[in-house]
Prior knowledge:
By secondary structure, the protein is of the alpha/beta class. The chain has helices at residues 3-10, 38-41, 45-53, 70-77, 89-96, 131-140, 197-214, 237-241, 252-260, 272-281, 295-301, 305-324, 369-372, 385-392; strands at 18-23, 55-60, 105-115, 121-123, 150-157, 160-166, 222-229, 245-248, 264-265, 288-293, 329-333, 350-356, 378-381.
Amino acid sequence: MQQHELVRELTEKNQTKIVLLVADGLGGLPMQSGGRTELETASTPNLDRLAALGTSGSSIPVLPGITPGSGPGHLGLFGYDPLEFKIGRGALEATGIGFELGPDDIAIRGNFCTLDSSGLIVDRRAGRIPSEESCRVVERLQGVRIEGVETFVKPVKEHRFVVVFRGKGLSGAVADTDPQAIGVAPLEAVALTPAAQHTAAVTQSFVRQARAILADEQKANGLVLRGFAAKPQLPSYQDLYGLRAAAIAVYPMYKGLARLVGMTLVGNAHTLDEQIDTLAHCWNDYDFFFLHFKYTDSTGEDGDFPGKVKRIEELDRALPRIEKLGPDVLIVTGDHSTPSRLKNHSWHPVPTLLFSSTCRPDGLNKFSERECLRGGLGIFQAKHLMLLAMAHALRFGKYGA
């Protein structure tokens, strides 16, 4: 029996509330051997108090040693096996900004980047240009024309944008053009299957035209593309868990993932405080709440160790407001680790805290990578986290006679 079949069989409805607070890229590493991670360095009295009352562990987003993207990382947390259900970054971004993908659409996540006079990348994120500047640059790309293909270019946030190609015979099996490195040129769009040759050619045409249009831009004079994808088909939260699920996120990609699993996007928050305001406002209307906090990831990607520490402390200060609402289950975790030392996602297990009146406290008094490795939840696959959430919310019946 598959996990989802079992979940459907055992699910029972009640009035309990579950909050899943995802600090993106939460896990870290010491900057030097023997040092402390960002989480260990941060002052986290509220997380430490909950750790003493709850149960902690370390989650593996995909498999040991596999570094996940944000899509697979979140899918695991939502209870979907990321090896079975694959969602391309482009589909997440497009859905997150409210673009309705059709059956002939291929969506692609784009980053504006800065190129030097030799065409080499000197800044992969174009200085994280503000969203209003990105909107202006995107508007310039509306002039791209490709025969036989309808092209949509939409701004997302800061340096991010979405491209959607619409036409017959398109495929998502195209390799990323983002080398994820500086000092090198953007990659060519390469078809991964024979059926994707046409899409790769369409992409190359788009890139050539876009580069010519952007040549006079100071920062966003280049672009890289990744996550070529069609719209996926996923069972919904209501179907699987019988939960009325709400998503409260700031960044479009995470809104997109939530929409694809059937969550309702709630509010239009821009800060963590506004997200919690939204949570309080809609508390009586939903059973499950996904709150996404981005900035532990972006500071890690920037290699900003002190900045990530401050963001963790910001998250910790917000916890009492969530607790005051009285969730029956409160989970704090991340979708993956983003150590400032590596300036990127990593394969390291992610600290996870589950607080509920039905917990067995495991004797820990601090929430950190080292402590979570000793916690009562053990080291587990993230796809099992929702099983624990549902059980502690008393939403599962007994399996078997």
